[in-house]
Amino acid sequence: MSATQHIRQLDAGLINRIAAGEVIERPASVVKELVENAIDADARQIDVVTAGGGSSLIRVADDGVGMDANDLALCVERHATSKLPGDDLAHIDTLGFRGEALPSIGAVADLRITSRRAGADSAHEIAVTAGAKGEMRPAALNAGTVVEVRELFHATPARLKFMKSERAENAAIADVVKRIALAHPEIGFTLTTGERTGLKLPAAGDDDAIRHRLERIVGAEFAADATALEAEREGLRLAGYAAPPTLHRATGQAQYLYVNGRPVRDKLLLGAVRAAYADFLPRGRFPQLVLFLEVAPERVDVNVHPAKAEVRFRDAGLVRAFVHGALRRALGAEAGQRTTQTIAAETLERVRPNGFSAPRQPAYAAADWQRPIAELDRPSADAAEPTGEPANHPLGAARAQVHSAYIISQTEDSLVIVDQHAAHERLVYEKLKAALSNGGVKSQGLLIPEIVEMDESDIDLMMAQGEDFARLGLMIERFGPGALAVHGVPALFGDGDIKGLIRDLADELRGHGAAFSLEQHLYDICAKIACYGSVRAGRRLKPAEMDALLREMEATPHSGQCNHGRPTYIELKLHDIERLFGRR
Q1: What is the pLDDT of residues 418-433, one digit of tens each?
Q2: Any idea where the MutL C-terminal dimerisation domain is (predicted)?
């Protein structure tokens, strides 16, 4: 600051415009604040109309309790609210509470509010233009409140430059309405963009109300395939729906997270979701899910940011573990067992593998988890000889191997097609994880060390993780300039591609560094080892080996899906095959 500059008090109009920038980022922010106000007013029908991507017009009408003239005059004043009793910020149970939304909108747009309190003789209207409040006037309105916003950001032209295309702003508005509507199936919503009503969600009060909303908002496939989950622990309650990992997406747009009915994008919850799905999704893909977390208001701080999209939990570790555990239990029962495949679309609409319930097995002894892959290929005690009849095995008896990549097995009422590499990859991965949790993975020393040429920077990355690799049975050391020597590999690795594994691990470390937790980091390494150490496509298997693989799958959790999110087997029911050939 130069000697000629002095501190001065900002004028009220500029203060309001600065404050508005925190609350009103784009037209979708306006819609969010107005719709939340309508919900807090006990509305049962909310109608949203926009034009010009929300910059020309936003109108939100509701049938809530409305306001009288005194409340209407106060609602456009900063920090005036009816939702915060006294000075208690620890028991917030409404969506709004800061008293900033309406004055912030009025500071950057032309705002007009018409309202009539239930039972009142007449309605009233007030206007605010660029922060200047107009006179109260009588108006015509049957009930509820209508808020009309025109020429958004005309008072802050710089903000207009950051507006996206009309199409993008319309999409953001639709997303906001959908996220709020999903949490309130008892309220009807409409969204009209220009002359077209793009969203019409009638109110529903029956037991299937949330299912109907799921179909309309997240999609019919999600509603049909998602697993319902409910959990309670130490005052926390979680309910919702989690899609099978096969329904993954390229973005996190289909993740709907709520805390006490409030849509949030909370890093802690997103981290718990990522960790729960980590074993089932390809890297860079995102699961679909809808989760409603209920927690006592005094145990969560929603006053973190003016936009109220972030929260802070008093017991963050407990919340993360609770959400992660509930999702893992739901996925443990369903992941990999429910996937959708379209086969002969003209005659078969959908063929879904009907998941089996893996028989409860005694925990493997440590030595069993260390068996090399060659040993796994030998028949287990349950499959000493190839099974002649399907018997009662969920995955049936192996009948053939085709293209040296797929196992065909037969059950009493179906055919099962197994991807041998994907299935074996999951088996090896689960064994590596179990061995890791039991103290470490046994290493198999190499008679002749494998020398891998690498950049010095990659060698530095690998050596920095040397202790973690050792826990997984991978023994490495420097071997002069530009090379790494591998002296031991996990016993389960067999004759896999050692050089390919080492280079892939270096790429992984270079791309992500220390971004993951230690546990997730070790599991990622396990996944790489499993991929490179599994039975490859192109390897011919004997009947006994195929049956042994099927029996191992039946006894292994999550065996219906490989580590990259792909199904390991598809089951075709006999009646579907008969339909394919016109027999039904």
Answers
A1: 999 889 988 888 888 8
A2: 398-541
